[in-house]
Fold:
Amino acid sequence: MSFGQGGPSGPGGPQQSPSQSGTPDWGALADRTAARMRRRRMVLMVGGAIATAAVAAVVATAVVNANSSDDKPQSLPTPETLPAEPEQPEPTFSDVSVPPPPDPLDFISDERKDTAPLSASTLFPGKSLTMSSRSYDKGATATTKSCGSAASARLAPALTGNGCDQVIRASFERGGVAVTVGVAVFDTQAQASKAKQRASGNIQSLSGGGIPSFCRATACRLTTNSIGRYAYFTVSGYTSGKAVTASDIKARQAGKDIADFTFARIVDRGEAQASAAATAQTTN
Structure:
């Protein structure tokens, strides 16, 4: 029995594909495997980059937070959040005003206030006085209400014409130079000031108490001044009767010393009465 050419089992029959024949296509499988490996490596690379970036961000945040908590200075609370201070009590002052201290000049300027005892012994106490180490012995003293009789003819009108109440005199001597001071007392300061301005001539010298007559018929040194309601005058010269010249130093110094002492005694009188008045104010 014979068969035709190209029968099913002959070598010249149709060719079959590997898939049709059941044999794997190894080349295609290799290509697909290689592609999958490439995709996997890409995924791993991208994932690693993302993870690295995430770790860097976490580290950076931690550093920032650390710097914020450790290095940044803490701000002080605002004034609104500070605790309120307790209210302090306002200082209080007494409504009672303290009167100013009395002025000593007020007491020796008006006879209504100048009420302390007044005499030769209160103005010129003791048996002597000392001025700048120069000592003077006190001689006679005298007080008269006839003011004109204690003054020269030229001085008398200035005293009597301005209401002189009395003249108190005292004499002092040192080294052959004698001085008489006469204190004319008036009711007011204005009267004493006018008497000083109109004064001319001299107070009469007063002898006695160991001091001879002086300055009666010879040139002597004169001074005139006033304070408060008191005008006072000095006459100084030599007990020997020698005339005082313009260049004489001893008579001039003696007259100045006694005048300065008289001024101080009248001021002391005012201060003593002012002090007494101030004490009375504080005790009432």
